[in-house]
Amino acid sequence: MEEQDKLKILKELLLTEEKEYADSIAKKVEELSKIVHQKQKLSHKVDPIIDDKLEEFVEEIPKTLGPTITQTLKEEIKNSQDAVVEALFPIIGKMIKRYIAHEMRLLSDNINKKTKEAFSFKRWFRRTKAKAQGISDGDLAITDYAKPRLIQMFVVEKDSGLLIADYSPLSDGTIDKDMVAGMLTAIKGFVEDAFQGGNQNLETIEYELYTIHIQNFYSYYIAAVISGAYNLMFKEVLEDQIIEFAKNHISRRDLENSELFTNKLKKHFEDEIV
Amino acid sequence: MKLSKKVVLLGHFGVGKTSLFRRFIDNEFSEDYKVTLGVQIKKKVVEMPDGRELSMIIWDTEGHTDIEDTRKSYLLGSNAFIYVFDLTRIDTYKNLSEDLDYLTKNHPKVIIKVIGNKLDLVNEKETLKNLEELNVKADCLTSAKTNKNVQDFFSELATEITA
């Protein structure tokens, strides 16, 4: 046996295990290399298809998902109204919320009032009246609701704007009547000066659901605050009543005595005007 | 029995009519200057030395450089006029005599008081000397900012208009 052969046999005996290990690594490297190449090959083929499909998908979104999204949003808004209001509140502003709250409060007050009345003598009387007049109970209730009502009366010295007397059939109110009398006189003076109408006088001021009816006399004027539908018929009746009051019940002495004037005013306008 | 009197504040722009008005009624003062448009009206109930209560209805009118431009209807039925001028601005009192003549002529029964305001911005002694030289007679020098002489002035006026 030659030297070379002996060495080969010795190598085989000593390095068999390492050779097997090296072979297995080489095999694994070859397998990984195949996978990488295969993916690259696939990617070239698949990517354009995916891109096309994606483009198609984006184009189709409004048609396919649009209605679903809209419906979902609608439901979400419907189910979380408070949250939506909270989110929109700073943008749209306090005005809308306050307005709605105010209207709801008014509606609620009216419902409460009507519910109370439903069991009252007033209700029974209205039903009978409606029957007699041949109109519906509801129509009569609406007429009642819009009916003009006297809220407050001010008797004011014409030049100075000082309050002589006042009367409120509903409540004492929280406003300062002296200041109201002054401001009414200032407004009257401003309008009468500004339009240079000679001896013409300001006769009405309207604000939302209220009307201020102003009736002028020589040294004083009477301002009546009216809520509800201030119509021509009511105006005429009110004018007649104020004239009758001034003509038959008020003297020079009353103009100098605020308490006396107030008592007379109260006595005269205690009952409903129309 | 109710006792009410109407008092009107008059004078040029920015002399401190509204500041005096606010100081007397609400005991407040602000450095912010806001021009009065038209008129603002407030009430102060003053207790008189004899125990009666007087409602002073005070009309704070917008300023005018010419007194004749003041809306005439605002002056009607007044019990007192308070003519306010600015101690730091001579143009607000250089026509004082003519303005007072106009008021006296058209409203002979109304009490007229003259106030020099913004006393906190001037030297009192020097100012009094200057006013004397110019023959300007003020009933009172006040500072709406520091409240100097304001309450006393209105208390005296209340007594005078109810006398």
**What is the H/E string of chain A?**
HHHHHHEEHEEEHHH
Q: What would you report as the Rg of chain B, rounded to the nearest angstrom?
A: 15 Å
Please, how many helices of chain A? 10
The residue ranges of chain A in which pLDDT falls below 50 over 5 or more consecutive positions are: none
- State mean pLDDT of chain B (0 to 100 scale): 92
Shape of chain A: rod-shaped
Could you describe the largest sheet of chain B, including whether it forms a barrel? 6 strands, mixed
The level of helicity of chain A is: 55-70%
Count of domain modules of chain A: 3
The geometry of chain B reads as globular
CATH topology description of the largest domain in chain A = Beta-Lactamase
Assign the CATH superfamily of chain B. P-loop containing nucleotide triphosphate hydrolases
Give the fraction of residues assigned to helices of chain B: 25-40%
- Percent strand of chain B equals 25-35%
Distance between the termini of chain A: 145 Å
Structure description:
The complex is a heterodimer of chains A (274) and B (163). Chain A is α+β, with helices and mostly antiparallel strands and 274 residues long. Chain A folds into three domains: 3-66; 88-146; 149-269, Beta-Lactamase. Chain A is 69% helix and 12% strand. Chain A has a five-stranded antiparallel β-sheet with strand order 2-1-5-4-3. In chain B, strand 2 (39-47) and strand 3 (53-61) form a beta hairpin. Chain B is globular, with a radius of gyration of 15 Å. Helices cover 29% and strands 26% of the residues of chain B. In chain B, 38% of the residues are buried. Chain B has one domain (4-162): P-loop containing nucleotide triphosphate hydrolases (Rossmann fold, 3-Layer(aba) Sandwich), CATH 3.40.50.300. At the A-B interface, helix 7 of A face strand 1, strand 2, strand 3 and helix 2 of B.
In short:
Chain A has 274 residues and is of the alpha+beta class.
Defining key terms:
heterodimer, A: 274 residues, alpha+beta, Beta-Lactamase, 5-stranded antiparallel sheet, B: 163 residues, 6-stranded mixed sheet
